[in-house]
Amino acid sequence: MTTSQLILLDHAVALLSVAAWFATGVTLAIRRARLAFALLAAAVLMILGRVVTVAMLAGRGWWFVQEKVLLGLPLLAVTGLAAVLIAGPRLLDTRRTPSKPVPASNVVALLAAAYAALAGLVVTFLAGYPLTWGTALIAIALVGAGALLTARVLAAPAEKTADSHPGFSRRRFITVAGGAVVVGAGGAGVGLSLMPAESVTAGGGPSPLSGSRAAVSVTDLRGARRPTPGGTRRQYELTAQTARVRLPSGREIDAWTYGGQVPGPAITATEGDLIKVTLRNTDIEDGVTLHWHGYDVACGDDGAPGVTQDVVAPGQEFVYQFRADQVGTYWYHTHQASHRGVRRGLYGTLVVTPRDRRQGDEAADAEKLDLTLPVHTFDGIMVIADQDGRTEHTAPAGTPVRLRLINTDSVPHWFALAGTPFRVAAVDGRDLNRPGEVRGVKLRLPAGGRYDLVFGMPDTAVALVLDNDREGGVRLRPQADSAGGTPAIEDTSGWPELDLLHYGTPVAAPFDADAPDRQFTIVLDRGVAMVDGGLAYAQTVNGRGHPSIPDQLVTEGDLVRFTVVNRSLETHPWHLHGHPVLILSRDGTPSSGSPLWVDTFDVRPGEVWEVAFKAANPGIWMNHCHNLPHAHQGMMLRLRYDGVTTPFGHSHTARGVDSARNPSHGH
Ligand code: C2O
Ligand code: CU
């Protein structure tokens, strides 16, 4: 059973348990004692069932069960036991004296157990991991308050005679004392919950804020200003503007664009060239930036508004400059209100080819087919095409073909290549070690990720199938004259997924990932948390939302390890700026193929990933879910190097232009 199936099973049993306790209380209240007895037995069984599901889930990791083990189950066990002890004898008694009235206390005890079961479920859904004292106290107080209130309501008809009742003072005492405990616990819980997050140290190790390092501002962390000898300067001007654009399908949409086109201008370079891009904004009211996704630029060029620069508001500009030292397939996009901006078209491709190719003869280059194919969904229409909007290409048999797939959407896409074997030459721009030839497999490309597929053109047609849609995708034909009919395309829908963790050939790791200098655990979930100053049902990291998630602090040269845990029922494509991470394992199974250096990895529901990287690029770097709406809903934090500061404030919100109106720093 997968972890996410176990999570669902546990939710189901927990829900049934709530229902069983409520039903027991209610049936007893209406004097259906025999049914109540059966329901009580079911409720008790359900507790035992949850002990089993929680124990199984605990085997997958403490993060999946912490709040259940420390609060939900104990609370239910205590109240359930009390309910059995209080109501059980009366229920057993029922056959002999069915007409005997049911004491209110029995019903109260059963309903209290129901409240406890409900509280456990609510804590799981609204608070999750990690359980805090604040949450625990509030939950206990609410269960207590529910029980007291129920007691009052049920006792109300008897109130008039209560004066003469010998139990009166005792009941009064219980009410007052219970009320005091409830108010005390609830007050303490709320107080604890409202306390500000203890600043910084989210990770292990001693606080790196030694104070011995001279502070350096992100504005001073800028890249090379000249190409390597023999390289050239590549200058681009990108103007962010709204525009009406025509999709390859012919349909017109209102888009947000760089340069009036989607995708924006294709940025290409040869290794060692200098890339200089002047970004201007005409009329994108949110403001814009350029983030070089997967490209490890110096921090000051990273394009993170509020961290590495101010957002570029209408009428403003910002100049990015970096050397094309990394070969491969990348992309760029706005990082300002990116959940909206990227979706509407503020993105483009960045491809850097190896330098030695320049020395080779031009003719050899011309005989290759090298296609950059970003996937993007506009208003529900999925588009995959090259820079010219073409989806059909011709290449003589034997031509070396490279397809650069880029997922610019927020959800994963599935690719299948019908008609030819192929290799996955690179993942996220980085070459794999000796990738083997595969055929009849599907590839799942995470949001933000890239795959380079290579093969020799066969003498029959090839189809790149996207998300099992045999009509769309990209077609390659061996000769132009064969373009007459649509070649039959295999049904790829049943093809198995190629697991890249076990693809290609291993090489020794460049570091010992078992001895990290820093270790951070990132538990992804949903829950109630503060996001941008407002309470929200957020996408959370360790129970918090951006910007209230403590920074991860590292020192230059550290070997850093992340454990990324997905407790939720959605996929989270995790993305760290400025560094590729080496995949160590998924769900405890080590990566056994080629080293996988990625900038985005899909953490599916219930999965636990271990990754490591060298902190070798000083700065303050965003670390977030690349399902961009999730990032917007809180799933975003920062990795900060010791001694690096920023003069910029948070400006990532929808109203980010507020800060954009401030004069730009450093430009
Ligand atoms: Cu492509 Cu911070 O993202
Ligand atoms: Cu996510």
How would you sum up this structure, described in words?
- The model is unreliable at 199-208 and 651-667 (pLDDT under 50).
- The longest helix has 28 residues, at 66-93.
- It contains 12 helices and 33 strands.
- The strands form 7 sheets. Strands 21, 22, 24, 26, 27, 28 and 30 form a 7-stranded mixed beta sheet that branches. A 6-stranded mixed beta sheet has the order 11-10-13-18-15-16, with no helix packed on it. A 5-stranded mixed beta sheet has the order 12-20-19-14-17, with no helix packed on it.
- With 667 residues, the chain is of the alpha+beta class.
- A hairpin with a 2-residue loop joins strand 19 and strand 20 (469-477).
- It binds CU-O-CU linkage and copper (II) ion (CU).
- Residues 291, 293, 333, 335, 448, 575, 577, 622, 624, 626 line the site of CU-O-CU linkage (C2O).
How would you summarize the topology of this molecule?
Blueprint: H1 3-29, H2 33-58, H3 66-93, H4 104-126, H5 133-155, H6 159-162, H7 168-194, E1 216-217, E2 233-246, E3 252-258, E4 267-270, E5 274-281, E6 291-293, E7 317-323, E8 328-333, H8 338-344, E9 347-353, H9 356-359, H10 362-366, E10 369-378, E11 381-384, E12 392-394, E13 400-407, E14 413-418, E15 423-427, E16 430-431, E17 442-445, E18 450-456, E19 462-466, E20 469-477, E21 518-531, E22 534-541, E23 552-554, E24 559-566, E25 572-576, E26 581-586, E27 589-590, E28 597-598, E29 600-603, E30 608-614, E31 620-625, H11 628-632, E32 636-641, E33 644-645, H12 657-660
Parallel strand pairs: 1-33, 2-5, 4-9, 10-13, 12-20, 21-24, 23-32
Antiparallel strand pairs: 2-3, 5-7, 6-8, 8-9, 10-11, 13-18, 14-17, 14-19, 15-16, 15-18, 19-20, 21-22, 24-30, 25-29, 25-31, 26-27, 26-28, 26-30, 31-32
